[in-house]
């Protein structure tokens, strides 16, 4: 949910491939390397923004909880026609995970462990640290009704380890980052460290799928934490789709994708579907849940197969850059903005919804411009330096 194609490909425009001339054509003067630039997968940036907006729809209008305090009543009453549709927005997380599997495999292929770690840390941490500071500061204001976490818990949140340590979270969405970090660790140890190749990636996907199924069966907390049975199919499916991207005729890759989709839709339905009950905010259809999960796989597959190369607009690059900071700040700060617009300025519900989305996108742009663009390259350079 938090990776960009340009990072995975090494530059903002594509992969740099150095071509060595055969001996017969070698001259006394060393020729300059031939540089070939591939089209950036801008459609992937657009899909990431779609997934982020899905999650925002869920947090603003598809659930109860703290957002009720912002609206002054349940979103069911604020959006009588759309609240049921917004309730499916939580599945944007599953779409993020499929995208992440694709991009992390692309990013880690042929990259040394130090470079992979530097890339991931520099991508995640600057905007995350800024979001922690901003949300903690805003929630500490006397005019804000929401309770801020303790100073000690806020400091622990800077490590991204608050969830396993049982510390109160500053950002509600950070549980997905904990899943991402565990995926990065598994991929780094099993693929990046020994060196990525097709056979190793296939064995990784097959082994993780089998181990996750066993972990689900034995109900062992440690195995559940490490192997993430509920989220593994989406990451694995994304990795399989990157193999498809490399070779669309790879039967093993398609097999990985198919099995991951079958298991992934099962977990999504198991978690989000329930029998109709008036006590629940919404009654999702199992068919629609399967449809949304399928959309995530199909959309990434279309990008992997090159069917969306025509979606090469530059604004998609900007959209991709804004997705991660938007995702970090949209929920908790969105509550504050919704209350100010709807209950303070008396803007109607749908106007408040759109204005809040726009405000969070502007804040995301500021974070990208003045935090990520300044700190990410510096942090990456510092972590990439070889030890003396």
Give structural attributes.
mainly alpha; 0% strand; single chain
Number of strands: 0
Pattern of helices and strands: HHHHHHHHHHHHHHHH
Shape summary: globular
Spatial separation of the terminal alpha carbons: 35 Å
Query: What is the average per-residue confidence, as pLDDT, rounded to a whole number?
Result: 90
Low-confidence stretches: 9-38
Structural class: mainly alpha
Number of DSSP helical runs: 16
The gyration radius over C-alpha positions equals: 22 Å
Helix content: 55-70%
Q: In percent, how much strand structure appears in the residues?
A: under 5%
Can you characterise this structure?
With 388 residues, the chain is an all-alpha fold. Helices cover 67% and strands 0% of the residues. It contains 16 helices and no strands. Helix 6 (92-108) packs parallel to helix 9 and helix 10 (198-218) packs antiparallel against helix 12 (232-246). The longest helix has 36 residues, at 349-384. It is globular, with a radius of gyration of 22 Å. The relative contact order is 0.15.
């Amino acid at each position: 949910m938090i990776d960009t194609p340009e990072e995975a490909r090494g530059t903002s425009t594509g992969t740099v491939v150095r071509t060595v001339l055969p001996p017969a054509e070698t001259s006394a003067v060393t020729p300059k390397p031939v540089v070939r630039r591939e089209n950036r997968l801008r459609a992937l940036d657009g899909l990431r923004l779609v997934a982020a907006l899905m999650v925002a729809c869920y947090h603003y209008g598809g659930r109860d909880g703290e957002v009720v305090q912002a609206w002054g009543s349940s979103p069911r009453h604020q959006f009588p026609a759309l609240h049921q549709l917004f309730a499916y927005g939580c599945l944007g997380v599953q779409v993020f995970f499929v995208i992440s599997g694709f991009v992390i495999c692309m990013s880690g292929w042929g990259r040394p462990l130090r470079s992979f770690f530097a890339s991931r840390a520099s991508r995640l941490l600057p905007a995350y640290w800024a979001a922690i500071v901003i949300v903690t500061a805003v929630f500490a204001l006397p005019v804000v009704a929401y309770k801020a976490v303790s100073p000690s818990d806020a400091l622990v949140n800077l490590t991204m380890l608050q969830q396993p340590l049982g510390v109160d979270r500053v950002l509600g969405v950070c549980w997905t980052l904990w899943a991402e970090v565990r995926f990065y660790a598994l991929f780094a140890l099993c693929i990046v460290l020994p060196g990525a190749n097709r056979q190793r990636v296939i064995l990784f996907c097959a082994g993780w799928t089998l181990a996750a199924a066993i972990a689900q069966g034995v109900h062992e907390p440690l195995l559940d934490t490490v192997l993430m049975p509920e989220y593994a199919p989406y990451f694995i499916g994304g990795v399989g789709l990157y193999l498809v991207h490399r070779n669309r005729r790879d039967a093993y890759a398609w097999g990985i994708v198919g099995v991951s989709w079958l298991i992934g839709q099962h977990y999504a339905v198991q978690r989000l579907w329930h029998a109709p009950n008036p006590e629940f905010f919404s009654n999702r259809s199992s068919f629609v849940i399967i449809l949304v999960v399928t959309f995530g796989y199909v959309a990434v597959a279309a990008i992997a197969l090159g069917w969306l190369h025509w979606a090469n607009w530059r604004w998609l690059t900007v959209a991709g850059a804004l997705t991660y900071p938007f995702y970090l700040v949209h929920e908790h700060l969105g509550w504050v903005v919704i209350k100010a617009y709807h209950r303070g300025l008396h803007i109607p519900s749908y106007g408040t919804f759109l204005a809040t989305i726009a405000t969070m996108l502007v804040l995301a742009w500021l974070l990208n411009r003045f935090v990520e663009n300044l700190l990410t390259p510096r942090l990456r350079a510092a972590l990439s330096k070889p030890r003396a």
